[in-house]
Hints:
With 337 residues, the chain is α+β, with helices and mostly antiparallel strands. The protein has helices spanning 2-83, 89-100, 153-161, 206-222, 262-269, 305-309, 312-336, and strands spanning 108-113, 127-130, 138-141, 165-166, 170-172, 180-190, 196-205, 238-242, 248-250, 274-280, 283-291, 298-304. The protein is built from seven helices and twelve strands.
Amino acid sequence: METTNNVEEMPKTTSWKPKRRMLLTVLAVLLAMATLSFVIIYQVIIAESHARYNGIRNVSAEKVSKIIRGTEMNANNVFDEVAQSLDSPEHVIESLKIKANLNLDVRGYFAAFTPDYFPEKGTWFEPYVYQPEYGGFEYRQVGSARHNYTKSAWYIRATEHNASFWSDPYYYYDGTSMSGHYATFVKPVYDAKGDLACVCGADMKFEWLAKELEWVDQSSKTNKMLNRYKSLTDFAFYTVVLNSDGTSIAGPEEKAVAITDENVLKDLSQKRGGVIEMMIDGEDCTVYYGPIEYIDWSVAVIVPKTDIVKPLLPIALILLGMVVVGMIIVRLVCKKS
Length: 337
C-alpha cells in the first residue's frame, strides 16, 4: 500500500514544476514589458514636459511683449500731447492729466524739462502725474536742486542718443503705495524749432506685471487642452521675468530667483533661450528661459522636478497593477489545467 501511494503522488509533484517555471517565466516577461513601457513613457513625458513648458514660456513672453508694446504706444501718445502743449507749463500739466487716464497700467507720467525752459518755473521743472493709492491721478512738481534730474543716467542717455528706451529696473521708496520696483520708458521730446524741450517718461510698476504672469500660469494650469486629464491641477511651476544680469524683476514675491551660471547669463545678454537645471529655494528645478521681444529682458518658467515626475506615479501604479492582474490570471489558468 505504501508503494502504491508513493507512485500516485509522483505525477502531482512533477506536474507542478513546469507550471511554476511557466509562472516565473510569465512574471519575468510581464516585469520586462512593464519596465520597458515605463522607460518609454518616461522619455515621452520628459519630451512632452519640455514642449509644454517651452510653450508656456513662449505664451508668457508674448504676453509681456504685448504689455511692453502697449505701454510704449500709450506713452508715446502722452509724449506727443506734451510736444503739442509746449506753449505753457499749465498746458503741459493738463496734457499729462488728460492722457494719463487713458492707460491705467502706467503708475505715473513725467516731463523733465531742460533747465529754465519755462523761466517762471525755475531751473528744474518736472511735472509728475501719478496714480495714488486711493485711485485717480494726482500732480506734483518733483524737480528741485535736491532732485537734479539732469544728472540722472536716464536723462543723460536720452539727450545723448536721441532715442526712446527702457531704463534699468530700479527700486523707489517714499513710504507710500508708490514704493516698489519699477522700469521707466523714456523718450526725448523736441519743440517746433528742433531743440530739446524735455525728457518724458512712463513708470511701470513690476507688481502689476507679476499679476499678469500669475494669470498666465493659472490659465495654463486650467487650460482644457493642456489639462485635459486634470494632470496639472496641483503643479507648482511659476513664471518670472529676468533682467539681463540674471536677477528676477517680476514674479511671485515669495520666490527668490537669481541666475549665476555664466553660460545662461551669456544667453540672457544675447537674447537666446535654453534650459538649465538648478537649485532654487532648496529645491531641484528645471528652468526654461527665453527672450522677450522689444526689450532686454527674458521670461523663465521655473519647474520643480516633482512637477515633471508627478504623472509617472499613476502610470507606475497602473503598470504594476497590470503585472499583478496578469499573474493572477495565469495562476488561475494553470490551476484549471
